[in-house]
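pasting for the record
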Amino acid sequence: MRNPDIDIGRPFDWGRTSGDYAKYRDIYPPVLYDRLIALGIGTRGQRVLDLGTGTGVLPRNMYHHGARFTGIDISEQQIIAARRLAAESGMDINYFATPAEEMSFPADTFDAATACQCFIYFDKPRLLPVLSEVMKSGAVLAIVAMNWLPDESAIAAASERIVLRHNPQWSGGGMQRFPAVAPDWAAAGPFVFTHGEAFAVDLEFTRESWHGRIRACRGVGASLAGDELRAFEEEHWAMLESDAPERFTIPHYPTILLLQNKKGL
């Protein structure tokens, strides 16, 4: 993928980091899934579309609540990993490799949709009309994000500095707490903003799991390869061995935005 508004246009490919993504990105806390259920997303009997599903983290973690999930992702490698992980857990989840803007499900198929840590990547003028069409009238889209907070963690801040030394174009750092308010693009689109919430949570990591988590981020595993990736890994691991205990917590900031499909209302 290449987007002039992301990483100064440097190309990235999530498929290159599917192995690390499958192993190290299943980190969203139970409280996040509980909040989605409380907000009516992913409940029993619903048909839910998960956009940018990656390795299927959200559908697999919410599967036991009884919704029927369909996950889509632009990366074939991510979908292969998602299908494998679902099969290993005995879960019946449909996954398709397709750009979200080009999905071709029948109209009025889905009762809800989710997009976890991915909405910045979509071409919204193309996506939103297509998404509105495949969702039922009044159906709710949940946009979820969860960022670590470098201003509140010396380890996260050090990791970001190392990423930027090896990939100066990376624009994914420096995240802070921010209000969960209506996105600008919602003003004239087919969805109306109805609810936003945010909260803080400390997630526990080991040196190895944090190293893998950072390696699986866009600025590293999806962008670097060969000698560039090896150089990053050596410096990042050396930092962890010298500056981080074997186990530590990193503060994160999950946000949930809900938007209702205006079609037919």
